């Protein structure tokens, strides 16, 4: 074998190896990106579940406080305790109003996701998602 042929073989092997490394790198990037996307999706789902749980517990605590403070105010008829009971009831109503907004937005998001999924299964263009309000 001549030196030119040997150099050509070595160059060809180098190019083949570089192509293989590039292909493997691309494949690994796709795999890692999918895993990262799935991990982020799972974190978002867990975050939403935690947010829902915290809001639910907050609502329960506000309701307990409002009921207990109203009973105390009714028994004592103390004007200061009546004001405190009214404030507790106001906070409960405010929380319930904000929670209703979140619940409506979540229902709309579920509805939109269902429509997109149904449209994708039928092979038609999916509708644009509605603009929802921010969570509180």
Q: Could you describe the 3D structure shown?
A:
With 136 residues, the protein is mostly helical. It is built from two helices and no strands. The protein has one domain (3-122). α1 (3-76) packs antiparallel against α2 (79-122). The N and C termini lie far apart (77 Å).
Keywords for this entry:
mainly alpha, 2 helices
Shape: elongated
Oligomeric status = single chain
Q: Helical proportion?
A: over 70%
Q: Give the uncertain stretches in residue-range form.
A: none
- Count of the domains: 1
Strand content: under 5%
The structural class is mainly alpha
Please give the number of β-strands.
Answer: 0
What's the end-to-end separation, in Å? Answer: 77 Å
Total DSSP helices = 2
Overall pLDDT level: 85
Rg from Cα:
30 Å
Could you give the order of the helices and strands?
Answer: HH
In this structure, how is the largest beta sheet organized? none
């Amino acid at each position: 074998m001549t030196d030119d042929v040997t150099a050509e073989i070595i160059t060809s092997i180098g190019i083949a190896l570089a192509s293989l490394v590039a292909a493997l790198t691309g494949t690994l990037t796709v795999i890692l990106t999918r895993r990262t996307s799935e991990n982020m999706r799972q974190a978002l789902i867990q975050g939403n579940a935690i947010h829902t749980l915290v809001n639910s517990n907050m609502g329960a605590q506000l309701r307990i406080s409002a009921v207990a403070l109203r009973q105390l105010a009714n028994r004592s008829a103390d004007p200061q305790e009546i004001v405190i009971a009214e404030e507790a009831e106001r906070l409960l109503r405010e929380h319930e109003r904000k929670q209703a907004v979140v619940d409506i937005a979540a229902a709309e998001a579920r509805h939109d996701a269902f429509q997109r999924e149904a449209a994708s299964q039928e092979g038609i263009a999916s509708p644009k998602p509605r603009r929802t309000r921010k969570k509180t």
